[in-house]
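ok so dumb question maybe but i'm new to this and my supervisor (M.) told me to 'just get the structure for Phosphatidylglycerol--prolipoprotein diacylglyceryl transferase' and walked off. so i did the thing. is this what she meant?? sequence i used:
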Amino acid sequence: MIFPEFDPVLVQLGPFAIRWYALAYVAGILLGWRYAVRLVKTPRLWGGRAPTATSEQIDDLVLWITLGIILGGRLGYILFYSPSTIWTRPLEILQVWHGGMSFHGGFLGVCLAIILFARKHRIDLLKLGDLVAPVAPLGLLFGRLANFVNGELWGRTTDVPWGVVFCNDRIRQLEGGACVAGELPRHPSQLYEAALEGVLLFLILRLATHRFGFLQRRGGLAGLFMLCYGLFRAALENVRQPDAFMPNFPLGLTMGMMLSTPMLLVGGWLVWKALKQPITAPEPVQP
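this is what came out, is it supposed to look like this??
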């Protein structure tokens, strides 16, 4: 399959361009915001307790998380994958519209935003993380689809029937007649990630919130998100092409695997700790 002639720019208005990549972030944030509000407005999910945050607080939290995603994602990419940019092309750090965002950097940025927001509003940190975790796969889904449209973060070469040749006339024109990914079929690893990190992870967390009462298990949802994401990302690194400028790590490891390992361990510990605590009925309100 030849990579479709996707144009990463949806609309060009003079020097101003509306890109699919930017719209993916907007869609993920807006849908995540509305889903979080819906969660706090569904009483049965909280087992008679008050929700972790009000809908008004979530409206405020969205801005904090957006800044965490953008700043953390971009700085994380530079630090983890392209540190030489800092001293060779420093202005490129600000060019977010060209791509180059790290999930792990964005995750750390969101964690910092949640910590600061929880301290400001005196909200339990782990419970606030439990509220944010179920909406995160929506952003991952749209982000990975945008990676596919951009023709970036492709997989390793393959002979599977659905392999994609990430090369077309538009790419050749942009790259001076060549295709960076070559002309051999590759795994569409962006779509694999959209399916696992986006769709499947959303369904797992949805089942946890709506069937197993995880919004009543402090730290359980945050841990389940980290555990599942770490597993999915580590597994998919086996078919995802590492960045050309990354060194060869021992034991066949990749940067994505190593960055996902702490998430896996911390996530597993949080889930174990949450499951040890039985769900108890709320104390009756004194008249």
